[in-house]
Specification:
This protein is of the alpha/beta class. It has helices spanning 5-12, 17-33, 51-66, 94-109, 138-148, 157-166, 196-209, 224-237, 266-276, 295-304, 322-331, 333-339, 367-375, 385-394; strands spanning 38-40, 43-46, 74-77, 134-136, 154-155, 168-170, 184-188, 214-217, 244-245, 261-264, 285-288, 315-320, 343-346, 361-364, 379-382. The strands form four sheets. A five-stranded parallel sheet has the order 13-12-11-14-15, with helices on both faces. Helix 2 packs across helix 6. Bound molecules: FE3-S4 cluster (F3S).
């Protein structure tokens, strides 16, 4: 890979340890994937924030980099393993909290915005159409590529961090237009009548197209919340963090539907629910906000919980960013949700918090949330917001 004089100096260590290490990572990646050069990125999203996933080895790695590492571009963080302020209320172990705080301190030293959300595009890290960025967190990467129309590979935590210290990333994969051409057509004939149908649709598309880039037709309308849950699901059950949706995503006008075609009907959506949902009746955990809840979703939850009480046998979480919670505080939504017995889980989520062994069955609106909850050994139920609220109130899935 070609390096400018300045990049060579960074690789030799002229700007210190963190930049040298970062250049080593970027050059190795560039050589593996045949990149010709490095390109500037407008922003970075760093995943790998929860101490639950990092452990002591990860914390040590971050502390080394934090000694002299400072990010060169706007850099935001994925969810951590706990609510950074109200972790006790979520039943987090004090020793875990101590370690998680050390992780956050290391990121803070690096100049990273402690945003702790997988929806950076809702809180100010919003790239331009066509802009190169280096994001990790698969749902956000898919949203950036498809819904916003910016360009990013699906970075890992270390490669995203390396891009942040250098301000650049190797130009390969989805940074190149020739690798962004759709190569399979998905016609949706199914009716999407409730919010969780978008997660079910993501399951169907992801499973069927796997590593191809789908051009999706047949969908008349989609709002941001529906698109963000679809993004999370399609990349969890498939692997390519890019799709086009005719008339909805911005770059869809550049292409025609490819020849190869898959048709999805109501029975496919039904089968997705059957695959995602387990046999279970008692619900001891309900979590809404995967990806992190928007203010519109929080408003809806607050409204639906009016005059209701969460079952004493069920824990109810709204996972969201701290910024969104601040808005919710001002508009009275927090008070309404807490009055009903719900809790806010800011800065964290159902997948990265240390939940293994705490709950038996989760109900959620999110297909991705179900996928990761099974990793946490929970039984799963996916349904509409109405069904999840009903389950939280009754402690049962009806
Ligand atoms: Fe976000 Fe966690 Fe879901 S990172 S997409 S809330 S699994």
């Amino acid at each position: 890979m070609y390096l400018t004089k300045n990049e060579e100096k960074m690789l030799e260590g002229e700007e210190g340890y963190a930049v040298k290490k970062s250049m080593e990572i970027l050059v190795a990646l560039g050589n593996i994937y045949g990149a010709e050069k490095l390109i500037e990125v407008g922003s970075v999203q760093v995943a790998g924030v929860s101490y639950h996933n990092l452990g002591d080895a990860g914390l040590e790695f971050l502390n080394e980099l934090a000694k002299d590492g400072k990010v060169k571009v706007l850099t935001t963080l994925n969810p951590a393993g706990m609510d950074l302020e109200d972790w006790r209320n979520l039943g987090i172990d004090p020793e875990f909290a101590r370690k998680q705080n050390l992780v956050i301190e290391a990121f803070r030293k690096m100049g990273i915005l402690i945003s702790c959300t997988c929806t950076p595009y809702l809180i100010g890290n919003l790239p331009r159409y066509g802009e190169h960025v280096a994001w990790s967190e698969s749902s956000a990467v898919t949203f950036a590529n498809s819904v916003i129309g910016s360009k990013t590979n699906r970075e890992g935590g270390p490669s995203a961090l390396a891009a942040a210290f250098v301000g650049k990333t190797p130009c390969y994969g989805l940074h190149l237009d020739e690798n962004r051409v759709p190569n399979t057509h998905v016609e949706v004939k199914a009716e999407l009548s409730k919010f969780s149908d978008w997660g079910a649709l993501g399951y169907c598309v992801g499973k069927q197209v796997q590593n191809k880039i789908p051009y999706i037709t047949g969908i008349k309308d989609a709002n941001v919340d529906e698109l963000k849950t679809f993004c999370a699901s399609v990349v969890t059950f498939g692997s390519k963090p890019l799709f086009y949706m005719e008339g909805i995503t911005p770059a869809s006008e550049k292409y025609q539907p490819p020849e190869e075609k898959i048709v999805l009907e109501d029975r496919d959506i039904q089968e997705a629910y059957e695959a995602i949902n387990d046999e279970a009746e008692d619900i001891d955990f309900v979590c809404i906000g995967c990806p992190h809840a928007s203010i519109k979703e929080i408003a809806k939850i607050a409204d639906m919980l009016k005059d209701k009480k969460i079952s004493p046998n069920t824990e109810f979480w709204v996972a969201t960013s701290r910024s969104m919670k601040h808005l919710a505080d001002k508009r009275g939504y927090t008070e309404a949700i807490e009055k009903a017995g719900g809790k806010f889980a800011c800065d964290t989520c159902m997948a990265v918090a240390p939940l293994k062994g705490r709950f038996r069955t989760v109900a959620t609106t999110s297909a991705k949330g179900c996928y990761y909850s099974r990793h946490n050994k929970m039984l799963t139920k996916m349904g509409s917001l109405e069904e999840c609220i009903d389950a939280a109130v009754k402690g049962k899935w009806s």
